[in-house]
Amino acid sequence: MISKFKGTGTAIVTPFRKEGNIDFKSFEGLVEYQIKNGINYIVFMGTTGESVTLNRDERAAVINMAVEIVDGRVPVVIGIGGNNTQEIVNSIKETDFNGIDAILSVSPYYNKPQQKGIFRHYKTIAGVSPVPVIIYNVPSRTGSNITAETTLQLAHEVPNIMAVKEASRDLCQCARIIRDKPENFLVISGDDVTALSFMALGGDGIISVISNALPAEFSALVKHCLSNEFEKARQISFRLMDIIEGIYADGSPSGVKALLEMKGLCNNVVRLPLVKINTALQNQLAQMLQALENSPILK
User: Fold this and answer.
1) pTM above the 0.90 mark?
2) pLDDT tens digits for 156-198?
3) Which residues constitute the domain of residue 123?
4) pLDDT at 299 over 80
5) Is 165 a residue of the active site?
6) What is the CATH number of the domain that holds 198?
7) How many CB atoms lie under 10 A from the CB of residue 263?
8) 277 lies in some domain
9) Does residue 260 lie within any of the structural domains?
C-alpha cells in the first residue's frame, strides 16, 4: 500500500465557473492533465481544493466524479479533517470509500490542543477509517504544531496511520521523524519551497500545489531525488524556485489558479474569503511561465 504514495501527489484545485459554481468540465480536464503528466496520486478536497467553501452536496459531487474520472489509474486521497473529532468520525462513517485509497486529515485548527489531544484525535479517526490515514501538520494554518514525538508515537502505535504530510518547514523536526519512523511509515513534504531539502533528508515525496500547473516538471524533480540524482533535481529546483515562491506570495490557491488560467486549464476564480492575486504578481507569474515555456526544463 505505502509504495503507491511515494513520489508526487497533487493537492488539486477545485475549478469554478465565472458565476462561482463548480466547473466539472475543467475539473475532468485537470485530473487527466495530472495523470498524463506523471503524477503518482491525487489529493481531492484539501486546502488547495478550497474544501471549506464547498457545501456537503458539492463535496460529495467532487469526490464521486474524482473516483469516476481516475478509474483506478492512480490512488485517490480525500481530505476529511477539522477541529471537531466527533464530526470527523461522523463524516468518515457517512462516506462511500469505494475507489478511495486514503484520507488526509489536517491537525485540529483554532482549538490549539495539547499534544495528548492531538494524539487521541488521530487515534480516534484512524480507528473508524476503513482506509489508511495521512496526518497533516501545517502550523501556519492551524495555529499549533504536531511535534516529532507525537507523530512518531502515532506512527509506532496506530497501525492505520500510514504517513505524515509535514508542512512545518522545520527541517530538523522532519529529520527526527525520518530518522526514527517505523519502516512502513511515509514522511511526505507538504511544502513545495523546501521540497529538495526535505527529499535530501530521506523524505518519501511531496503533496504539491505547483504540480497543478507543472506536473511533469515537479514530478521529475521528485523522481530524481528518489533516485539520488540530486544534481539533476537541483537544476530543476533552481529553475522552479521563483515561480513556486510566486504562487504563494498573495495567497494559495489564488496563485496557482492564476497559472492554471494562463495555461488554459481552468478559470482564475476563487471563493470568498479568498480573492485573486494582485495584478503585479499576476504579470510576474505570466513572465515566469513564458520563460519556462520558451526554455523548457524537460526536453
Assistant:
1) yes
2) 999 999 999 999 999 999 999 999 999 999 999 999 999 999 9
3) 2-216
4) no
5) yes
6) 3.20.20.70
7) 14
8) no
9) no
